[in-house]
Amino acid sequence: MSSTTGMKVVVTGATGNVGTSVVRLLSEDPEVGSVLGLARRLPDWSPPKTDWDAVDLAAETSDLVERFRGADAVVHLAWAFQPTHDPATTWRTNVLGSMRVFEAVAAAGVPALVHASSVGAYSPGPKDRTVDESWPTHGWPDAAYCREKAYLERALDIFERDHPSTRVVRMRPAFLFKWESASEQRRIFGGTFLPGPLARPDLLPFLPDVPGLRMQALHTDDAAHAYRLAVRQEVRGAFNLAAEPAVDAHLLGEMLGARPVRLPRTAARSAIAAAWGLRLLPASPHLFDAVLRLPLMDSSRARTELGWEPRRTATEVLEEFLRGMQQGGGARTEPLRGRKVG
Fold first, then answer.
1. In angstroms, rounded to a whole number, what is the distance separating the alpha carbons of residues 278 and 206?
2. Are strands 32-39 and 7-12 parallel, antiparallel or unpaired?
3. 145: part of which helix (H) or strand (E)?
4. In this predicted model, what pLDDT tens digit does every residue of 155-209 receive, in sequence order?
């Protein structure tokens, strides 16, 4: 790092939910001299010290080495959630594209790689206690998202063995939400035409309480703060990132004034599978299966080694996200464009 110019950081997937928060925080950091944001489509947004370049990681012709050369760190966030009916397509972008990033980091001699892993990389685990970063990361093999995240954990194991001088950090956040991501996440998981205003408490007389449907949430800006700390500090390894409390039907019922009603797993899955099979719902039943099995995470290591602490509770995160659903929340990038349907 140059003391006169500050750190140079390259961010892939820089226009998405996490990328926009990471780029903004890095651009505000006095230790960072420049940020290069890589995305398939250039945004109508230009924070300080930030340049943009159009890159498709699925394309074998993308010259990542030259873009990474001279960087102090690469933050790899790029990820495609769809099409869920064509896992070969997401594999090309998510797995093969990520491996191109890893290879380019090594070829360009970048000292640090901060990779966006996920709670989805974890093998099935407990819902009544938390697990640390030593929990196995074999994912839920039937869900493409989990399968891809787990595969990249193994790829990074090999990368670290072959390139011990490169500092590798694996972030494993819980489900990430913010006001600006509401429209994008509605489209990804609920479909293009799902009306955001349906997220009104008075339209929800009851909530389905499915056994095992207990998970963690985190504000995207809080996750981005952890990424910024990992760029600046000499840390290695995996970090769980989650806020309290854990989210279940009872917590959502209190938030929305709706009564939880027990619904068998098979009934819930059958409804999701039918809608997905008819292409009415983008979220697959395989991902639903995975969510029911994901463990709850202990974030102690991030607190003690990174000095990280979430600034918002999971309840506050979901309240902000629901407002975004109702209001068509978005931002000035193609993935996060706001849209209110209905």
1. 25
2. parallel
3. helix 144-162
4. 999 999 999 999 999 999 999 999 999 999 988 887 665 555 555 555 566 788 9
Per-residue burial over 118-150, b if 16 or more Cβ lie within 10 Å, else e, is bbbbbbbbebeebbebebebbbbeebbbbbbbb
On whether the CB atoms of residues 295 and 126 are closer than 8 A, the answer is yes
- Tally of CB atoms within 10 A around 221: 20
Biggest CA-to-CA distance, the chain: 61
Closest CA to 207 of 159, 261, 270, 265: 261
Nearest CA-CA partner of 312 in 243, 251, 245, 247: 243
Residue 128's pLDDT is 96
H-helix or E-strand spanning residue 296: strand 296-297
Q: Which residue has the tokens 């008819």?
A: 278
Instruction: Give the DSSP H/E element, type plus range, for residue 98.
Output: helix 97-108
Q: How far is CA 234 from CA 19, 121, 169, 221, 230, in A?
A: 22, 24, 10, 21, 7
Encode pLDDT of 198-223 as tens digits: 555 555 667 889 999 999 999 999 99
Interatomic CA distance for residues 170 and 121, integer angstroms: 11
Local structure of 29: helix, strand or coil? coil
Nearest to 110 by CA among 157, 152, 68: 68
Mean pLDDT, the chain, whole residue set = 92
**Lookup: tokens for 180:** 């600006």
Cα–Cα separations (whole angstroms), residue 117 to 1, 168, 260: 26, 12, 32
pLDDT at 2: 36
Torsion of CA 119, 121, 122, 124, to 10 degrees: 100
Rg of the chain over all Cα atoms, to the nearest angstrom: 19
Q: What is the pLDDT of residues 316-334, one digit of tens each?
A: 999 999 999 889 999 999 9
- Residue 155's pLDDT is 98
**194 near 228, Cβ under 8 Å?**
no
